[in-house]
């Protein structure tokens, strides 16, 4: 997820939290994986009390999220990044410049169209939804409660709401999601060419290296199988800018914000697919809140500019 910073008072807490070498080191460690306070203290050779003070500062600034989790000796405080990228700019107060205060969160099960082939399935916090490897259950009404889904080939499509007003244009859109390939069971070496489309325009293809099941996902509910099952994905950010489309800062295509401008009141369809003629037809798994390693849905952030 991208965190936007400006010259407002809310951003001041972030700047203050970042003005510390130990806190920057903590963020570096959490970028690798979620960690407990004790693990952070051991990694930095600090006392747990000292780390707790720094963690509180980072949590107050909204840079990390801490939640209780089971440990070897009872409950522990597990810390994870709330954002893995920052973008800052100076904004005019007149409202005539760019705005970055528009965002939305789309639950994994809230797709509006789909066509999938097995292996496939969906799950919510309490259980799987229907029978596994049966595409018919992608139409089940319980899918709206789904926070993880997977398929070997095909697509899911979501509707991104359009908040543009007359006289405004889309200058940039960032789409953050946790995803990986989909192998039968799991397989860390299972490449998949995952395609992204926005507003009918192809954004590009990203090759995911595998379907990760080597260790249990931090957020997975207790009932989720620990063996021979996908556990977590990679957090990726697809950014459509005025210069082109990028994934984690690496250019995917020349498709720019100009190519995906929606008409007033028209939504933006987002399609995530694995095409049958792809070089690596390795499926896709999408994680939402409560599954995988990142406690988030498909997160969308907009930048709007005057026409």
Automatic annotation (TrEMBL):
SUPFAM superfamilies attached to this UniProt entry: Winged helix' DNA-binding domain
Which residue numbers delimit the HTH arsR-type domain? 13-95
Matching Gene3D superfamilies, A to Z? Answer: Winged helix-like DNA-binding domain superfamily/Winged helix DNA-binding domain
Annotated signal peptide = none
- One GO MF term attached to the UniProt entry: DNA-binding transcription factor activity
Q: Which InterPro entries match?
A: ArsR-like_HTH (IPR011991), HTH_ArsR_DNA-bd_dom (IPR001845), WH-like_DNA-bd_sf (IPR036388), WH_DNA-bd_sf (IPR036390)
SMART domains in UniProt: HTH_ARSR
Whether DNA-binding counts among this entry's keywords is yes
* Record key words, sorted: DNA-binding
Name of the protein in its database record: Helix-turn-helix domain-containing protein
